[in-house]
């Protein structure tokens, strides 16, 4: 590791309307290093990145690149200095080809010049090969998967001679295999002496890939630590000041009768076959399995998004015909989907409007929405779920990820469900919000709701479940009690060992 940092921020302070977002924060990055930046939502990570990329100006403090102070950082200056950022949602032009998107980062912006299409395609192919991407440069970006788009973004950054690469939640929508592929690209970039700032809520990734970790809390630097010997529980303590046990606040609950029962449920379109499972009132059943095992597809079949071809769904012993989501809601089933942005909330709508969407009759009078009743319901859920928002009239997109997830949850609680299916309920939210959502799940179970929780995070499955059902090949491979379950047993069952 070189002595002079590629990028250094020293004593950075930034305030918005009197609220201090950063307070004397220092951070540095060396060539060939992965330096992780972690903290809860609101800890200051995004603001620090905006300062380093020139999107916002610091109130005080200094930035330097390769030891040289930068008098005034701007987006153009940061690009010229070799700083590039890749965000969770790639910033590509969907209706242009991969080669054309990469060309925007490489080619000079002259008003009159002849395009060398052959060179444009050759450069794109070379860069894609360099980052290990087997992607046709002539493909339209809109046809690419999310991991493919991220590889194109990385190729763009490398093509523009970026020496500092900022990766903000790059694996939020990737499968385990795709994550490993991304890690291989990161290792290749490290060997080329690129410095990488890596931001993620997934602590297991931080511990697997980072050389150093800097923790922010409430806009201040808590500390910078070498990865060697660093434990996840230590990171959690540094981030939120609470013990690991606070993240999974599971308490025993006296279970009631079977609230949801699946009998040989089969849906060919969803790839679900002969799935049988029971969830009792007050019980949290975790649904585990590898990507492609059919977990989400089973939930969609139960909720009527992809109606089953055969088998039975029973709610409190009564068989129900779930041919549509409306039928499922009418039977007392709520479903919080995996993709919060696309299916969980409507970002442009107000908090109060989002909360009433699944049960409009409850806030209507003579066929029209009663705004006072809608607002009263929303204010009740804001208080009950501890949602941080300036007003129930605020747009949901103005809220943090964790609070958006709570709004999505409130929508289903407004239907007074008997069964609640939660698909990746804490995906993409910070550790503090995770603990709050887990506490809400515990409270719901104690009120008698039956909860079926789908999660890709084994610690969450093990920490919050009374029983764990493991899926493989579209069916339930087996069920483990809380006492029987270990990471090794769950994985072995998921792999068919």
Characterise this structure.
The chain is α/β, with parallel strands linked by helices and 497 residues long. It has 2 domains: 7-243, 3-Layer(aba) Sandwich (Rossmann fold); 258-495, Rossmann fold (3-Layer(aba) Sandwich), CATH 3.40.50. It has 17 helices and 22 strands. It has helices at 45-52, 75-80, 98-106, 117-130, 146-159, 176-191, 203-209, 232-240, 295-302, 325-330, 340-344, 351-356, 371-384, 401-413, 431-446, 458-464, 487-495; strands at residues 7-16, 19-29, 34-38, 60-65, 68-69, 83-86, 164-168, 195-199, 212-217, 220-226, 258-267, 272-280, 284-288, 310-315, 318-320, 333-336, 364-365, 368-369, 419-423, 450-454, 467-472, 475-481. The strands form 5 sheets. It has a 6-stranded mixed sheet with strand order 6-7-8-3-9-10, sandwiched between helices.
Count the DSSP helices.
17
Overall outline: globular
User: End-to-end span in angstroms?
Assistant: 43 Å
Please estimate the helix content. 25-40%
The number of domains? 2
**What summary fits the major beta sheet?**
6 strands, mixed
Class based on secondary structure composition and strand pairing: alpha/beta
Overall pLDDT confidence: 87
Broad CATH class of the largest domain: Alpha Beta
Strand order of the largest sheet: 6-7-8-3-9-10
CATH-wise, what's the superfamily of the largest domain?
Answer: P-loop containing nucleotide triphosphate hydrolases
Low-confidence stretches: none
CATH topology of the largest domain: Rossmann fold
């Amino acid at each position: 590791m070189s002595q002079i940092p590629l990028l250094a921020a020293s004593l950075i302070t930034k305030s918005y309307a009197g609220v201090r977002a950063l307070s004397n924060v220092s951070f540095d990055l060396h060539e060939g290093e992965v330096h992780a930046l972690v903290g809860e939502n609101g800890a200051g990570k995004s603001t620090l990145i905006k300062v380093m990329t020139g999107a916002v100006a610091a109130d005080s403090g200094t930035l330097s690149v390769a030891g040289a102070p930068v008098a005034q950082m701007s987006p153009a200056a940061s690009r010229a200095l070799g700083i590039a950022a890749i965000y969770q949602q790639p910033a590509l032009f969907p209706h242009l080809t991969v080669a054309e998107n990469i060309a925007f980062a490489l080619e000079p912006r002259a008003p009159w010049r002849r395009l060398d299409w052959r060179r444009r395609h050759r450069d794109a192919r070379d860069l894609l090969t360099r980052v290990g991407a087997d992607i046709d440069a002539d493909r339209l970006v809109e046809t690419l998967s999310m991991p493919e788009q991220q590889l194109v973004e990385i190729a763009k950054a490398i093509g523009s001679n970026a020496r500092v690469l900022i990766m903000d939640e790059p694996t939020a929508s990737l499968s385990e295999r795709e994550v490993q592929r991304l890690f291989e690209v990161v290792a290749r970039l490290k060997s080329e002496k690129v410095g990488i700032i890596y931001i993620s809520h997934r602590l297991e990734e931080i511990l697997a890939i980072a050389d150093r970790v800097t923790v922010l809390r409430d806009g201040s630097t808590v500390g910078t630590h070498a990865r060697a010997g660093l434990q996840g529980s230590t990171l959690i303590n540094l981030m939120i000041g609470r013990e690991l046990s606070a993240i999974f606040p599971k308490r025993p609950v006296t279970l009631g009768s079977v609230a949801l029962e699946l009998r040989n449920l089969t849906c060919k379109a969803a790839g679900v076959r002969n799935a049988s499972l029971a969830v009792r009132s007050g019980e949290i059943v975790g649904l585990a399995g590898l990507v492609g095992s059919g977990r989400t597809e089973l939930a969609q079949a139960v909720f009527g998004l992809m109606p089953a071809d055969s088998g039975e769904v029973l709610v409190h012993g009564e068989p129900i015909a779930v041919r549509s989501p409306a039928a499922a809601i009418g039977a007392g089933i709520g479903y919080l989907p995996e993709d919060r942005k696309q299916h969980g909330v409507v970002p442009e709508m107000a908090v109060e409007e989002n909360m009433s969407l699944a049960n409009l009759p409850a806030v209507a009078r003579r066929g029209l929405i009663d705004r006072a009743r809608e607002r009263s319901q929303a204010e009740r859920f804001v208080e009950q779920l501890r949602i941080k928002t300036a007003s129930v009239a605020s747009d949901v997109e103005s809220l943090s990820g964790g609070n958006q997830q709570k709004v999505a949850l409130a929508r289903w609680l407004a239907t007074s469900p008997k069964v609640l299916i939660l698909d990746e309920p804490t995906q993409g939210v910070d550790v503090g919000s995770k603990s709050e959502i887990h506490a809400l799940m515990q409270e719901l179970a104690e009120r008698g709701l039956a909860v079926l929780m789908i999660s890709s995070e084994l610690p969450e499955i093990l920490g919050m479940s009374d029983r764990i059902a493991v899926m493989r090949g579209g069916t339930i491979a087996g069920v483990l009690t809380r006492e029987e379950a270990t990471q090794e047993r769950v994985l072995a069952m998921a792999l068919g060992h």
